[in-house]
Hints:
Pfam families: Semialdhyde_dh (PF01118), Semialdhyde_dhC_1 (PF22698). The chain has helices at about 15-30, 45-55, 65-70, 105-110, 120-135, 155-165, 185-195, 230-240, 295-310; strands at about 5-10, 35, 55-60, 80-85, 95, 115, 145-150, 175, 200-205, 210-220, 245-250, 270-275, 280-290.
Amino acid sequence: xxxxxxxxxxxxxxxxxxxxxxxxxxxxxxDLKLLTLPADARKDAQRRAEAIxxxxxxxxxxPDAAAREAVExxxxxxxxxxxxxxxxxxxxxxxxxxxxxxxxxxxxxxxASRVTNPGCYPxxxxxxxxxxxxxxxxxADYPISIHAVSGYSGGGRxxxxxxxxxxxxxxxxxxxxxxxxxxxxxxxxxxHAGLTQRPMFVPAYGAYRQGIVLTVPLELRLxxxxxxxxxxxxxxxxxxxxxxxxxxxxxxxxxxxxxxDPQALNGTNDMRLGVFANDHGQVLLTAxxxxxxxxxxxxxxxxxxxxxxx
Length: 310
């Protein structure tokens, strides 16, 4: 059997560079081969088309429009794709690349020819909400609000330059954005979490490089009478039992855990979920993970491994 050939289109971006880093040791072991283009050919449409049609699996780390163009350029029916952009996350026929989303999802990813990597924020939101909605503990039409704070690398090369470049001293220490409530991740969250109503999603950037804390508040008075924090926690714990990359913390009652560190899992492909409760009928669902790990390059490599093992 020949060594799989993997082409990373957009390999000089934040996600592409991290994928290279994660695969470097395996290239040295010759578990796979990486197809790369010289710097002067990275924007050459013909050279990129030739490369993508010559590989076994292409990983697209491109802006949405460029990712669509790359897929359209594929004429080799044997080429499989992992798209790390948001271009195909709600497109019929593409397999959503969140292996822990359901019992069958890892198998679907393994056999797919087209896999769309989840967005960073949706990974946490869907990871928390989908099991609870599917189990009927949270109604599909519940008025969901999601707040998330990411490291500035989530804003791509421009944001990294703002915080690490010559004008870094003027960068904001914290900023809430997406105030038009039209963030591009919202339809993705609604679809894959199984919600019938559009959730309210408010993202933010902090003055640190990477890592996410995402929270979803719930009011028990709006749930069925038999649903409490213990039931919500048990559902998540059962869903992710045995999952290699998703951990569910014990049910938390303050002050057992005084704070959540968004950088706690940086450099890993892991996600840590939590359920916090008080005596006033309020519950807070939480997710901590690396926006460049489980939220981007780590997830892409996880999906790559599943596809190569088919």
